[in-house]
Design brief:
Helix content of chain C: 55-70%
Distance between the termini of chain B: 52 Å
Structural class of chain B: mainly beta
Radius of gyration of chain B: 26 Å
Largest interface: B-C, 65 and 77 residues
Helix content of chain B: 10-25%
Largest sheet of chain B: 6 strands, antiparallel
Order of helices and strands of chain B: HEEEEEEEEEEEEEEEEEEEEEE
Largest sheet of chain C: 3 strands, antiparallel
Strand content of chain C: under 5%
Number of strands of chain C: 3
Distance between the termini of chain C: 32 Å
Strand content of chain B: 35-45%
Oligomer: heterotrimer
Chains: A alpha+beta (about 475), B mainly beta (about 240), C mainly alpha (about 425)
Shape of chain B: flat
Order of helices and strands of chain C: HHHHHHEEEHHHHHHHHHHH
Strand order of the largest sheet of chain C: 1-2-3
Amino acid sequence: MKSISRRAWVLHLMAVAFLCGVGFLLYTFFTNADSWSMKKANRHIYSSSSLTAAGSITDESGEILAKTVDGKREYNESKAVRTATMHIVGDPQGYIASGVQSSYKDVLTGYNIVDGIYDLKKYGTGSDIQLTINAELCKTAYQAMGSNKGTVGVYNYKTGELLCVVSKPSYDISNKPVQSINNDKTGEYDGVYLNRFFSGVYTPGSTFKVITSACAIDNIPDIEDRSFKCGGEYKIDGSSVKCLSNHHTIGFEKALNKSCNSAFAQIAVELGTQKLTQTAQTLGFGKSLKVGNINTAKSSFDVSKATKLDLGWAGIGQYTTRVNPCHMLTIVGAVANGGTSPSPYFIKTITSPTGKVTFNAKTEMLEPMFTQSTAAKLNELLRSDVENGYGDYKFSGLEMCGKTGTAEVSSEDGGLRPHAWFVGYSQREDLPLAIVVVAENGGSASSVAIPIANKTMQKAAKLFS
Amino acid sequence: MDFLFEQFDYLVRYVFAVIAVIILLRCVFSLFRLRPRREVMAKLVNLADDSEIEIENWETSIGRSRSCDISLKNYKTVSRFHAVLALRKGGWYVFDTDSKTGVYLNGKQISHAGKISDGDTLSLGNAVLKFSSNGYGANEDEENAVVDYTNAERLVNLSDNSAYYLNGSCLIGRDYNCNICLPMNDISREHAEVYLTRNGWMVADLDSQSGTYLNGQIVVGAYPLYDGDIISVGEYSFMFRE
Amino acid sequence: MSEKKTKRKYRYRKPVNWVFLLVLITAFQIFCACQILLNGGEKLNDTTIYIVFGSYIIVEWVYFTVFAGVLRRKSFEVELIAFFLSGIGLALTTSVYPDKAYTQLIAVFLGIAVFIVLLWILSDIDRVIKLRIPVAVISIAALVFTLIFAKEINGARNWIIIGDGLLSIQTSEVVKVAFIFVGAATLESLQSTKLLTKYIIFALGCIGLLFLMKDFGTALIFFFTFIIIAFLRSGDIKTIFLICTGALMGGLGVLTFKPYVAKRFETYRHVWEFADGKGYQQVKLLIYSVSGGLFGLGLGNGKLRGVYAATEDLAFGMVCEEFGMIIAFTVLLTFVALVAYSIRYSVAARSSFYAISACAASALLLFQTALHVFGVTDLLPWTGVTLPFISRGGSSMMCCWGLVAIIKAIDVKTYKRYDKIIKN
């Protein structure tokens, strides 16, 4: 008997192995719960691979953007609004990863590991999400884009609320042109599932001069008294950085107003690799911004292998520099807000099916980008840009500050038109909004980007002041 | 009514979990913690050196091999697996498990199995063992015997096997008010106390002159009691059973 | 003195209070019935629920009253677990397949009957020894019979169907109990016949027949049980190692030379890639298991029930989704507890027969649970074995109760009367 009971101890090994297996199973259940439960095969949530049961999404004013009625997902009545807000709301199939319907699926369906999707069963819906986005503003911005692809983003530089996020091309979410998207040869639906505002990166062009200026203000004490020579180009090492016109001798402020490439190439070369990189890093280049559940694409500024000429080009936003529109928005937001930008967000409140508000957005600040004095200086410069460069009449009554950019896109494959940028903000106390506009291959910034920005900001002024 | 149903449906999920966890964990913990009660069921006395071998199993193997329960290593004439001693329905049996030298019960060789009772001598090769059962196997039909398998905690006076059933607290001493009154000179008026706490039964010495002993060791303060413990007070001994 | 100390360490503990737990179990089952009534579909007939749950609860109380009140038995942990788990299985079956509720109820009753009868048979070791050879012969005969006459269901020939589906028996389940019954032996017979030959022939016969039936899951369980029993009997690690290596080589050989067998396991660790095909059931199980959360969605609210063989092959997922993960994982723990219990009591068993059989029975239950749970969640290859007590199925229910009877027979207390003496 003794020997048998001694042998029986071997069964302990088996029990331990079993318990290990159970532990591992629990671990996999807990780590994968979110992704598994949100699979399209889950008929609690999906029917024929389309989201059916989920909470509603409303805009800042309470306008319904998406809701579930009798097990069917319905969207805003207006086609224009549906199209304009498609990227931020997200599609029911989940192709648009940064859309609320994808990135906040667990909230909308009310899933959590403790209760499972019981709330969804009980109430037929999960939590409701109210966005900070304004549908009307999105519609205006989308229409203002005209035939251009690209993105418009507007946010409140005091609170961080994103009021408008538009990405083009888009489509009507209720009548998805599946055939045209799948058989698209003209490029009409190029990158239609990408929310360019969060996930796109573009060559910044002259808008990067804001950053070069910031670096110059910090590192060259007498920068405002300097003058630069422009002969239509700036020669470095046998090659040259071209300027749009011959500005002859030009001061710092004027150079920014006129967007003189020669002057800024000189400044960049004088500042050197290290200082520019340092400024870029403080501004958040190379890092991803977290907007709610979404991580934006990383902006990049890498001059570690740059020649002098390259550095000159980098200083005016060419070379390998790429900027994410949302990131650019926070940079001008920081200028407007005294050096620090609030963290942008687009979820205003989350309300559980029982009517309890489970999440209320709070303003959080990003890392400081500029010192206060630098911010004040840049503020003056950007205001002078609009006053003396583009003309205040282009933004009537808005007291805009800003900088355009016409980003040359590598034209080796045959003369692509440059990206048209505008970044700026209103100085008005009652309109603390910053805007970024990117029109892909739109051409001249002042003729393409500024009207879009103006239309959007005028609408915003009407809506919010 | 629908509202009530809804509430029921909502609440019952948690109730389910709570009930199931109580039931299963209660049983699981019980199964994990239950240990069999093991007692000396019989004894074998090796007549060569008067050494005593206690038998605690229902089946006991005897042989020269080390994996036997009773290992007779030094006896060359004992087979490696010589015999098995087993408690069966009719009493104790000894089985010859194909040994070379055979099994002799009171001098007579057994063919396969033989019934063994108190006082019998068991010869395995040149090893001679005297068997004494500890009261086990005495009853022909143990299933129906109403013995002292009760779950009532009690103190058994070992001198006359009388039992005192414990209820809350029990004072032992010379005084008439004591639950167990022992009118002897070497016992203090209130000598010892057996009482129930949250952690089970305890015994405490009440500053007696001659002391209270638990399993032969003097009790200082209070000790927990377990089944089979022997409490000695003066010349009296009590066995605690639960 | 040291002996006394060890005695103190192993403190004797009282068995659980069955009345309290049985009240809880009854409450649980009444709640289940209410929930099925509330969430029930059109197929559901209210009287079915009343009859099924009513009679089950009555039988529970009768069993405990008789055994505790009349026969004066103590320690009911094992039965409480078995009754509770069977209750969960019954509730799932009633809720998902109301038309099969009565069959399942009868299966549970038969299981309880098997339990009582087997306990009685096991009470006398002489009777057990006499019965071993006939049982061995009958089980082999039954398996051969099945192989010849059985209907093939889901690629395995292991169902005997009598009278147009009126009665269908899975012989392999019944033989499980016999397999352990035959495998265990008393100490004196172990010592007299040191060789395992006879048992090995019997075991290989059973396993071979199961292989011919293509019932690989059960064959694996049998093989595992065989290893456990062989080890407990002989302690001969070398032989067992040899057998295991042989089996492994054989298995690998089968996989290489018969690629269609390997193909059965191609979804292993890749279920998500086969989500629309072979991995369909498993993918659904994973999705719905986590959808249930810790507390489940409640009986009748799940979606896994719509998947094929939900209450049999996917029983674990059903428990996860409708009862919640807490209950599902606690259920798993109970099988570990049964093993621990068998190990503890093996030293005080009335004969090595009980020690070996109880250890083997609890190990079998645990192994089967492991194959079911880990197989269906894709941690092990999926063999389609059932979850003991909870999966629907008459033969497996009887087998489980039989195994539990074997486990329970290890404890001397099972057969003792505990009469209260009140005197002072």
